[in-house]
Amino acid sequence: MKLAGMTAVITGGGRGIGAAVARELAAEGAAVVVAARDLDRVKTVAESIERSGGKARAVRCDVTDPSSVHALASAASRQGAAIDILINNAGMAHSAPLQKITLEDWQRVFAVNATGTFLCTQAFVPGMLERKRGSIVNVASVAGLVGARYIAVYAAAKHAVIGFTRSVAAELEGTGVTCNAVCPGFVDTDMTKESVARVAVKTGKSPDAALAAMLASSSQRRLITPDEVAHAVLALCDFSGQRPNGTAVTIAG
Ligand code: NAP
Prior knowledge:
- The chain is of the alpha/beta class.
- It is 48% helix and 15% strand.
- It has a single domain (7-187, 224-251), classed as Rossmann fold.
- The chain has a 7-stranded parallel sheet, sandwiched between helices.
- Helix 1 runs parallel beside helix 2 and helix 1 packs across helix 8.
- The site of NADP nicotinamide-adenine-dinucleotide phosphate has 30 residues, from helix 1, helix 4 and helix 6.
């Protein structure tokens, strides 16, 4: 097991990519702390990991709220657990043409995707630096690397995550703590289902046709599975070899 004896915190772990990452890291021996706003969902994920023989705890956290992130850091390190791995996965999508974007939309999308990543990283890095060991993986998006129509806010927030990742990586260079990002295209989760439903309503297409158009616009042949993203995240947390630092790994399906 690659992560035996380690503890990992996964934000947005109640479903989708975050739940898959929590399962993957737990299967490799990490004790996982699964966090999101909906406590029932994170409890369900933690309980299913425990039933499969893994170690998991559920903690309620809103990553946009500094006091909630603080409480997560305290809860995660309860009983002296040192946090080796932080997966900043909590996020939300948004799509609208430029003139329909409200300031509130802009602030909400940045708060979850970008500010949440900043607050959690700042809360967990000091402990990692003390032990000279840590891995931070930020779940960005292909939208953090390229722009596309109608996703200006989401793409700007994910570009912010990539810039943050690269800059923090530069600052951490040589300390034993790394900071990387994964950049998936469309993944088979609730987030994509909601986007497909929105596009179908707006364009009058069937959900299947809307999904096909979305995939074609991003040159994807198929939806990526949450497990594929989880494998890429695990590779960036492998302490046994030389880990990269400051990379943004595309998972393009
Ligand atoms: P999802 O199914 O919508 O899940 C999002 C997760 O984030 C949920 O667990 C949600 O839980 C949590 N979350 C949202 N706001 C939060 C907050 N303020 N504080 C704490 N947790 C919060 O989405 P997903 O597809 O798994 O996406 C996970 C990540 O991958 C996101 O960062 C997303 O941008 C990124 N991504 C997704 C895709 C895709 O196609 N699906 C592609 C590229 C990148 P609560 O609502 O309970 O808080």
